[in-house]
Amino acid sequence: MSEHKVYLSWKNEGEDFLYKTYDRSHLWKFEGGTLIKASAAPDYLGKAALVNPEEAFAASLSSCHMLTFLAIASMKKYRVARYEDNAVAILGKNEKRKMGVKTLYLRPNITFEGDIIPDNTTIDEMHHRAHQECFIANSVLTEIIVEPVY
User: Fold this and answer.
1) 41-55: b (≥16 Cβ within 10 Å) or e
2) pLDDT 10s digits, 93-147
3) Closest by Cα among 131, 132, 145, 50 to 88
4) How many other CB atoms are there within 10 angstroms of residue 110's CB atom?
């Protein structure tokens, strides 16, 4: 077991605290010292130039899937040269009629190199296993759809 800590800080620097006008900008500080400025999504009165929680959620799932996929590929002796993903999180109302990330699309595009290149069926099997073993995917209710780019 392990712990993963994040410090969050927000301060009201406005003259009021009205719903439509207060600043949603805040700071995430990770254990290793990385600082990220975050905000709400623009649809929810946040700043488009900053990371929002929904994007961070998509990035977390995409990253976890990739790291799990890379571990599987490495153990199978496939050499991955490049891994890219264009993840998309879709918000909507869930079964309890609450807003949430209902669906996340992962669209990995992987380049292999070396003497042994897996076929598409093997790649699909590795994605399936990566999804089953991803810590973050195992922690959420969101439907995750993996659509590899070949």
Assistant:
1) beeeebbeebbbbbe
2) 988 999 999 999 999 999 999 999 999 999 999 999 999 999 999 999 999 999 9
3) 145
4) 22
Assessment of whether the complete model's pTM goes beyond 0.85: yes
Q: What 3-state DSSP class applies to 106?
A: strand
CB 146 within 8 A of CB 131: yes
Contact 136, 61 (CB under 8 A): yes
* Residue with the two structure tokens 């990035």: 59
Q: What angle do CA 147, 142, 30 make, to 5 degrees?
A: 100
Out of 2.60.130.10, 3.30.300.20, 3.40.50.300, 3.90.1150.10, the CATH code matching 53-146 is 3.30.300.20
Structure tokens at 123: 């790649």
